[in-house]
């Protein structure tokens, strides 16, 4: 299971989201490989779930990927509820 | 032996940063596999930054020569990644030391002052550390005083800038859980105040229909490629086919050559970003972990896109008006005998978008437009003034982009000049 967190630059917000996704997984008692990257790179990497802020994820959504949109990237409850259906 | 430790080990920034990562990983009691891979990746990140700089500076040089031949003024592309990467060969060690001790100062300040912020935007910490290393060195400091003064100033920046923005961040996010930690703060602060004075916050941007089609510019690589291609082609046309093909491109077609150089610049930025990502990947969680243990109840100060989802329309409007101001400033700057600051889509997108969000929360549509326009002027004029003061430091062709770097740099250089001549 691989989760890829995405933002425009692949530096700041995706990194913080990655730390939050890891916290959320811990609370759910699940394990997964979590990494973060920029939009350009995201289009060429393999992952089971792509997660990021709602305002940019539309650009990744071509029907071939599992996309999770976050409204508030600091909200652990939101991450948990949106991620859970995709976890094995 | 001492020589080896002081010069070769601690004097090699990549190894120094690797040691910091190693200590951080050991403090977090990570498994030995994590410690080894984390340390190696950090060192490699630093080496990648240098490699990206080499790629980027080649094309920057060519741009500079064309621009100079075409217009007889210096054209400068503000790009934090570029200048920080270029400065590492000379200022790498002091940058690394200021970065780490600045983070420690940040934790101390959060502990003993009412400014309870932990600045988690690692790449901006690195850039500000570099700006401080360069400007304080130009001002005449070296050795231990340089590191001590630089670390204290960096720690102050890491708590004061988030504190400056927090009243507006509370309004934007409707919560007090986190802060914005991004060194474009002065632009956002000005934008919020412009909005307060001239706008009406009832008429929010979020009620208008804004086409989402500009969203692709959020992708840094696309935005850099596009801007650089436009500017390279325009400058090549002004410089003339003959000049480019005889002196620069070795006979290959001037437009094709310019296009490839533009993409080479963007590729350099992409490589540097990948290096920065690897470099800060181990350091930020360690910093956060240590801060959480020593200072509970702090707010994390986060990269600015954190506010974008709260007002997506203001993001697009802010970017457009900031960029417009940048284009206007391009024609104003030479009149004032300053270098031409080439407006980049990336700085205008990130800081303009944020200025739009801050302007909207205090002054609605008008606030977003005028505030972002003010931000665009700030990130054009401030780098130009910083260049004048940096003078002969020599990273020609590029400088720091966001407002706080320029303002802090200008303040330091002005104060140090006064002290020397007082």
UniProtKB/TrEMBL annotation, chain A:
InterPro entries: PTS_EIIB-like_sf (IPR036095), PTS_EIIB_2 (IPR013011), PTS_EIIB_2/3 (IPR003501)
Gene Ontology biological process terms from the UniProt entry: phosphoenolpyruvate-dependent sugar phosphotransferase system
The UniProt record lists the keyword Metal-binding: no
Presence of keyword Transferase: yes
UniProt domain PTS EIIB type-2: residue ranges: 1-88
Gene3D superfamilies: 3.40.50.2300
One Pfam entry name: PTS_IIB
Molecular function GO labels: protein-N(PI)-phosphohistidine-sugar phosphotransferase activity
Record protein name field: PTS lactose transporter subunit IIB
Keywords: Transferase
Automatic annotation (TrEMBL), chain B:
Membrane-spanning parts: 6-27, 39-60, 91-110, 117-138, 144-165, 222-240, 252-273, 314-334, 340-361, 373-393, 405-421
Name assigned to this protein: Ascorbate-specific PTS system EIIC component
GO terms, biological process: phosphoenolpyruvate-dependent sugar phosphotransferase system
Function: The phosphoenolpyruvate-dependent sugar phosphotransferase system (sugar PTS), a major carbohydrate active transport system, catalyzes the phosphorylation of incoming sugar substrates concomitantly with their translocation across the cell membrane. The enzyme II UlaABC PTS system is involved in ascorbate transport.
GO cellular-component term (any): plasma membrane
Organism: Planococcus antarcticus DSM 14505
PANTHER family on file: ASCORBATE-SPECIFIC PTS SYSTEM EIIC COMPONENT
Record-stated family: Belongs to the UlaA family.
Topology class, membrane: Multi-pass membrane protein
Keyword set, alphabetical order: Cell membrane, Membrane, Phosphotransferase system, Sugar transport, Transmembrane, Transmembrane helix, Transport
Subcellular location: Cell membrane
Oligomer status and interactors: Homodimer.
Principal localisation: membrane
Superkingdom of source: Bacteria
